[in-house]
């Protein structure tokens, strides 16, 4: 800012109300072409003359009609100011859009380095070959009427097995056998005979659920009464 600018800025009110002589009007016209601050102030004060005219008994400036800037001149100047602002906004928007495209393209190409505080993506989790809980239905062996099911729940240490079987025949104790896909077998539970021939038993095996091939129920002689297959 400079003293000349401040002096011209003080003339804005008189410019709008037509209180300037021709020399000051021409000076301010030339100044407004290059001064953003004064153009903004003029735009802000633009509605004042109309407001004053709408007031009853409002004082009328005692100026010669020829010195008042015409409505067309004021509107033209304000129009140029609005157009310049709109052009500046469009230019800024285009620049931001272009910058966004460059950033996205760089990120896609792996050219944007990660900040130290950026969260590190966790490693992909291994997809289990089976859900953590599997229900398998027993098929009776020849000459056996065994029915029921085995519910297997995967654990970090192996598998938990809940048996619910009926129509057990033969002499106990009965054994739950878990067979692995490679042929290895573990005993998961053992229980005695029941008068009803029904049994609900919970057992466990160190074989992982994904590696279990079958669950079988056998009598004390080792005869398989029924098999539940998982594969």
From TrEMBL:
Pfam families per UniProt: zf-HC2 (PF13490)
Gene3D superfamilies with a match to the protein in the record: Anti-sigma factor, zinc-finger domain
InterPro entries: Anti_sigma_zinc_sf, Znf_put
Putative zinc-finger domain boundaries: 7-39
Transmembrane segment boundaries: 95-114
UniProt keyword terms in alphabetical order: Membrane, Transcription, Transcription regulation, Transmembrane, Transmembrane helix
Name of the molecule in the record: Putative zinc finger protein
Natural source organism: Pseudosporangium ferrugineum
Lineage, uppermost ranks: Bacteria, Bacillati, Actinomycetota, Actinomycetes, Micromonosporales
């Amino acid at each position: 800012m400079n003293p000349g600018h401040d002096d011209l800025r003080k003339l804005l009110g008189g410019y709008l109300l037509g209180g300037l002589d021709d020399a000051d009007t021409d000076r301010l016209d030339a100044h407004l072409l290059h001064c953003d601050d004064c153009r903004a102030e003029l735009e802000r004060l633009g509605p004042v003359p109309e407001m004053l005219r709408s007031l009853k008994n409002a004082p009328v400036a005692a100026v010669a009609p020829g010195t008042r800037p015409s409505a067309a001149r004021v509107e033209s100047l304000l129009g140029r100011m609005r157009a310049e602002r709109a052009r500046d906004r469009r230019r800024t928007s285009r620049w931001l859009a272009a910058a966004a495209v460059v950033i996205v393209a760089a990120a896609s190409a792996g050219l944007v380095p990660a900040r130290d505080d950026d969260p590190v993506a966790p490693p992909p989790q291994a997809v289990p070959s089976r859900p953590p809980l599997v229900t398998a239905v027993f098929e009776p062996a020849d000459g056996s009427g065994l029915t029921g099911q085995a519910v297997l729940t995967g654990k970090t240490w192996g598998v938990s097995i809940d048996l619910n079987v009926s129509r057990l025949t033969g002499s106990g104790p009965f054994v739950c056998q878990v067979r692995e896909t490679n042929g290895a077998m573990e005993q998961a539970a053992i229980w005695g005979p029941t008068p009803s021939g029904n049994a609900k038993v919970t057992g466990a095996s160190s074989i992982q659920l994904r590696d279990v091939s079958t669950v079988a129920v056998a009598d004390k002689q080792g005869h398989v009464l029924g098999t539940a297959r998982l594969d």
